[in-house]
C-alpha cells in the first residue's frame, strides 16, 4: 500500500530527490576531494524506496478465439486493462466480455478476477453472436450464478443442473446478459442483475438477450502453433498484481493458505445468499474481517468498505463463522 505511484509523480522520494545519474554527478565535480568520500554512500540511497515496478510489468495477451500475441503494461484496474488489450488488437474495449488466465477456453475457474500472477497469460473473450431466449420461471430460483467483468458486463458463471435455465440449451456459461425484457442492464453490477432475475414472476414469460463469447473455428490450428502462450502452465510466482476498481494496482504476496480457504468459502456463501460469484469481493470481505475480534466490529468494517451491498445480517454471521472455522482448522 505504501508504494509510491511513480508514474504520476516521479520526482519526490522519501529521502529527498530521486537520484538520476546526472543528479549524482551534480553533487560535486569528480576532482573535488571533499565530495569524494560522500560518493560511495550515495548509490544505495535510491534503493531505499523501491523504484515503482509498474512500468516493468509486461503481460502477454491474445484474443481467445485466435490472434497474434500482444504485450500490454501500465494498467491499474480492469477497465484500463481492457483498454490496453483493445488498443493492441485495434478493437473497441466494449467488445471485450471477460478475460481468462492461461486458457483460451470459456473456463470459469480461470476467470480473471482482481489478481493476475506475474507469469499469467491473458486471453480476452470478445462479443460473438447475440441471441434472445424466452424464460418461464417454474420455481423461485432460475439456477443461474451471475458474476461481472468489473467493467459493466454481467455474465453467467454457473448453471445449476436440472434447473429452469438448464432446460434451455441455448443458454451457456460465459454468456453476457445484455438485457432483461428489452431493458439494457449494461453497467449493472452482478448483485443487481441477480436481484432483477429473482424478482421475475413465476409463470410469467420474460426474455433474456444474451451475447455469447466469439468462438474459434479456423483459428484453432493457429493457436496450437503458439507454444509461448504458457497454456496450462502452473504459475509459481510468489507475487500477484492486485487490480482494484478504485485506486492503483499493487504488487502483493499471493494469499496465505488461511486467506485462500476463507476466500473460497466466502465466495460459496455469496453464491448461496446472493446468486453471484466474485473472488475479488470475497477477498475484500476476508481482508475486512481477518483481524477483527467480534462480529460487530466485522460488520462495521464491512459496512465502511462495502455499504452499497446491504448484506443481510444472517450472511454476515455465516461469513464470520466460516472465517472462524478456517482459522481454527475446522474447514
UniProtKB/TrEMBL annotation:
* UniProt-annotated stretches for the region Disordered: 1-54
SMART domains (alphabetical): PDZ
Q: Which InterPro entries match?
A: GH2_GIPC, GIPC1-3_GH1, GIPC1/2/3, PDZ, PDZ_sf
- Compositional bias of kind Pro residues: 41-54
PDZ domain segment(s): 132-199
The text of the family note is: Belongs to the GIPC family.
The protein in question is named GIPC PDZ domain containing family, member 3
